[in-house]
Amino acid sequence: xxxxxxxxxxxxxxxxxxxxxxxxxxxxxIASQLxxxxxxxxxxxxxxxxxxxxxxxxxxxxxxxxYPVPFYLVAIFFLIFDVEGAFIxxxxxxxxxxxxxxxxxxxxxxxxxxxxxxxxWKQGGLDWRETGKRADS
Amino acid sequence: xxxWIAGFIILLxxxxxxxxxxxxxxxxxxxxxxxxLARLQIxxxxxxxxxxxxxxxxxxxxxxxxxxxxxxxxxxxxxxxxAPAVVALTALLMFSVVPFGKDITLLGQKVPLVxxxxxxxxxxxxxxxxxxxxxxxxxxxxxNSKYGLLGGIRGAAQMxxxxxxxxxxxxxxxxxxxxxxxxxxxxAQQRYPFILFQPVAFLIFVVSAxxxxxxxxxxxxxxxxxxxxxxxxxxxxxxxxxxFLGEYVHIMVFGGILAVLFLGGWRGPFLPPxxxxxxxxFLVALFMIWVRGTLPRLRYDQLMTLGWKVLIPLALINIxxxxxxxxxxxx
Amino acid sequence: MESVWEAVKELLxxxxxxxxxxxxxxxxxxxxxxxxPLPERARGRIILTCDPDGGERCxxxxxCSAVCPVNCISMEGAERPDGRRYAPWFRINxxxxxxxGFCEEACPTSAIQLTTDYEFSKTDILxxxxxxxxxxxxxxxxxxEYNFYRYSGVTTNYGDKGEHVGESKPVDIKSNMP
Amino acid sequence: MExxxxxxxFLSIADRVINWSRKYSLWPMFFGLSCCxxxxxxxxxxxxxxxxxxxxxxxxxxxxxxxLIVSGTVxxxxxxxxxxLYEQMPEPxxxxxxxxxxxxxxxxxxxxxxxxxxxxxxxxxxxxGCPPRPEALLExxxxxxxxxxxxxxxxxxxxxxxxxxxxxxxxxxxIGATKSRDPRGPGYEGIPIRxxxxxxxxxxxxxxxxxxxxxxxxxxELSEADLALAAEMRERxxxxxxxxxxxxxMLTFEVDRGSVKDVLRFLKNxxxxxxxxxxxxxxxxxxxRRNRIWNKGLAEASSDAGAxxxxxxxxxxxxxxxxxVYQLLSFDTAGRVRxxxxxxxxxxxxxxxxxxxxxxxxxxxxxxxxxxxxxRFEGHPNLRRIxxxxxxxxxxxxxxxxxxxxxxxxxxxxxxxxxxxxxxMEVAALDHxxxxxxxxxxxxxxxxxxxxxxxxRCIAALDGETIKSLDLEIGYHHRATEKLGERQSWHQYIxxxxxxxYLAGSSLEFSYVTAVETLADIHxxxxxxxxxxxxxxxxxxxxxxVWMATFAHDVGAMTxxxxxxxxxxxxxxxxxxxTGGRLHAEFLRIGGLAADLPEGWKEAVDNLxxxxxxxxxxxxxxxxxxxxxxxxxxxIGRISLEEAMDWGVSGPNLRACGLAWDLRKxxxxxxxxxxxxxxxxxxxxxxxxxxxxxxxxxxxxIRIIEQVVRxxxxxxxxxxxxxxxxxxxxxxxxxxxxxxxxxxxxxxxxKIPVGEAYGxxxxxxxxxxxxxxxxxLGSAYRMRVRGPGFANIQTLPIMATGESIADLISIxxxxxxxxxxxxx
Lengths: 137, 331, 178, 824
Fold this sequence. Notes:
The complex is a heterotetramer.
Chain A: H1 16-39, H2 69-93, H3 95-122
Helix pairs in contact in A: 2-3
Chain B: H1 2-40, H2 56-65, H3 77-94, E1 104-106, E2 109-111, H4 121-142, H5 146-177, H6 182-188, H7 199-212, H8 224-227, H9 237-262, H10 273-294, H11 300-330
Antiparallel strand pairs in B: 1-2
Helix pairs in contact in B: 1-9, 1-10, 2-9, 3-4, 3-9, 4-5, 5-6, 5-7, 5-11, 7-9, 7-11, 9-10
Chain C: H1 2-20, E1 46-48, H2 63-67, E2 73-75, E3 78-79, E4 85-86, E5 90-93, H3 102-106, E6 112-114, E7 129-130, H4 132-135, H5 148-151
Antiparallel strand pairs in C: 1-6, 2-5, 3-4, 5-7
């Protein structure tokens, strides 16, 4: 028999089609679980039950507050480094092909990246803990 | 066309089996964890529900499904609903690129023993694990609970920090296998598993992956001693169950990927490939449980420091060294 | 570098310490099937014992009730035709009782005693009120020999005045008259 | 018809499947109130292993829990929280009431305690005991499992078909209707309970038996140094500070209200020796003193009011309305001094001045005095209630305040809904004057939280995860133990002392009996002294093992818990062999012990001392040098020695700052001077230093235990002075003279002579002392408990401000706090 053409829709090929089917299966499973969770079981509503938990105390204020700056810094660093990471990864696949010249360029890039990392490190960009007032006392 | 339908049925059966087995194993991983931890702690663990407590996961699942499902006031209902689904979905999808054996032949067609052999398999894993951050962060945020929010934020910060070292630690593997495809990576380890060539990458990967799966000593987003239950504080019933399931599937995926990347995947003597893969996954899981039973938990800033100041530079240097050595000896 | 090595070594030694416990026998006592014998002094459910001759030891002196820090013991005292005191009813509220053992210590006849039994959980709070028939047992408990009436100076079946253990003959006060 | 039958068959199968699943998947909430929780926690550890029943998945959040084990005393202040947590659990849910307190109020028939949790939430199973041993809790669990299996029909509810039963179906009990208000059980309402709680014994016109039974209190000889200090005081303050002629325990001055502050400042900064620490600050309501009532009687009888006034002023033993008592401690040469200052309720010259500017720790003490007595302090920055909730009416330690909960209106479900704890922002605003508009991110950590080690409420104002300010709300565990001391006879109070620190057991009895024996000048046989030391050290080990477990757990290591509890069980077995109790020994008696050592005690203890040091090394491997543990503890939660002394910190927490202050060495009692041991210290004052000190203390305790065993003296276990002691049982059973003493001491209670004394021992957490004031009756006139925790925990905000949430948790863990000795 002829193998079915290795098209996108081929069920014998472990390709995107298979992934799509798998995704649908998984989603069905999860949806069924969520549906069962929502449907089954006695529902008894009460004002206390739907109050957010906070150690048994009525919460003060909203739970949607602004988070301090260091957190956003991490997010930005992540973005930067993730993009740079993408370059390294693409290079990794073909690193044999591009050989020494490629390696040289990439090392330059990585060293630059490291330098950048050390720079933000020295600038205190990676110090998430405010030095506690008692740390040096 | 007929063949296509037959193939489709085979595919469906295969995928259902895969999904079933993964879910079953994840369920029983909970049992394994409870039993193994118990033995490390000189006790027995569950032993009443069925022989050796073997029916324990079933009891837990039925209980969770029939439990009331609560949504707190002020919660964002949509996000609250989909957050656990995101976690479970991404974890399960990640498993789709893990090959569990050589191709077999059915109806004269090759049936590959992998759900999907993407040529960007590894990147797919990264993508999925990045996506699962949304489950944690959204779940924590949408609950309208302060503990939930703190947990969600911790989760997000932690995952984006370790995503980098996770990705960079695998660059040397890609360099050695010349491919992102998991199937190819297994191929490349025909003679020796990569752990022998890349111990540093292995270490970085193990640490980062444990951080990604939020296990002790990196379980900050749900640290019960600090944040009650962290991002899933407000989740009850099966929605909490899906977080739970996601966590254990994650462990299995982690085991599977670790096996594929460093331990030669399904390769091994005497036993069938699937068994080898399962053994490797099982051992990795045991290791994680063992670590959980031993270590204390890091603090938020220490965790970040470890990621940014240790693992990332180390991973970058490892790439440079691997590249150099590869060029000198590989030719 | 050295500190890194130290750290790794300590992590490994921790892992090792946990690991060796895998090979120790679990110390779990499988409760419903195995019940560890408790030392005699362990304090559990309270009983009313009887003396070696089978009579009730309790003489309704109320010392237990008086010393009880939580007031959970109550009774009534009465006298039987043979002159012995007894409690027509006797009640302990185990919902309050803290099993401190003060009653046992207070009892001058070794009647009230604590057993080592701890298994009496209930689904109904009112069933913790134990009446005399629930408390009374047909043995001597920890104090095997003691019989109050052998020492007390009352005319009883055990003998007349002056015939009890360690008791001297009664003095005829009239003979002392000048 | 057929369909119906099929449907019902399906439903009954579904019932069985669901019930079976639920039976084996009862996840308890991580929730505990007091002593019982320690036994509940033990139930989870290796020896009892609740995991076997599938019930080990302790959920810290009520959303994921199926089972609420109400373990311990339900306080009126915490009841709204208990109710909320119960209501936040999703259906179906079950409740086990564990221990006498949760069942009915137990031994705490007192104003701050709800008389049974079933008054606010429904209960499935009641487990008796105080606390019930772990097996008893397991029995309760098994009964609950059976109840689920045999009586519940959940599937109709699960499939929304109407009908069916699941979870707790019992009603909340109504007091008076379905539940008795009387501790003796139903049917007693209206019959008076022995021991009224308002006044001690009514009017006593001098009692002939007073002198016959009770010789005067002990008198101490003042030392040279004390006399020198007294002379200097006289020189400085003249008539304003008067030395009390007789004292049973320490140098005591009576100081005029206006001069108290000067005197205290002098004693702290200038005197020789310097009294650096404010040990305690409390008050006494003198209004019910016997001879005061007597004087009042005279005054009313006389028509010439002015004459009576001058007469009663000169009358010796005339008491003011209140006395404020300050007790100071000197570290240089170990010693204490007591300052008393009278106070009239009406017409006096102003309020007493606050001493918060001399000792910052006075802040809480003065708030407590205000809360309990209604005495205001001039210049206090934030004088408001501390132990009782804000809505509380009256001041409980006043003599005219009814003490019994059963004398007050019952606490009902409506109360639990209405009487909410104060809002976090409000507390912060009161404590450090945050403008109310400021929307800081306030987070309640506690009262129900895994790592607060009880019902402690920390209110953190957060910036990200950094704590900008921290306020503490205590009083959620206020068991009114001081009021109880005024009601229970001297003997009956012993069980209550155990509960003042449920991890240290008879160490607390030790402090209490030391105080009473000091006052009454009772001499203890050597054997009894040695056994007391043995028990105290065993409990120290047991306490430190629990501390090690919880501290490790707080920083995320779960396994040390299981290991240390194994050895703790060994220790508890020994304690049970000797005393019959596990947590609460109730074994020490005024004048000695309840019984002699039983057979086999020596072998058991030898077995322990042989194994223990090796095991300790093993556990240390998990923590001491572990890099993560080091990172979490080193340099965290630092406090300097200067601050620690100023705030009244005691115990290992003080020694971790570098001062070798241990009562066992500095002011030895019960023969501690005969044992060879060291007082471990560290200088860093951080979490890690506290860890090192405690671990080393365990080694020293083993040393002491070995010496005690080697040199156990023979002889009696209880004093021959039967005026004050429950006589030896052997003698009592056969000897009428002894029996008479027995009768009197058991019923009326021993009469302790008029006077006052402070007795303290070094308990695992620091200096725990009892200040007993006697009016010559069968129970204390005033029972003051000086808990080390009250002083120690006050320093938490200093240590934790500027650190992160995770650090706060490890600081609390390293401090070894326990709530009953904070809230008492």
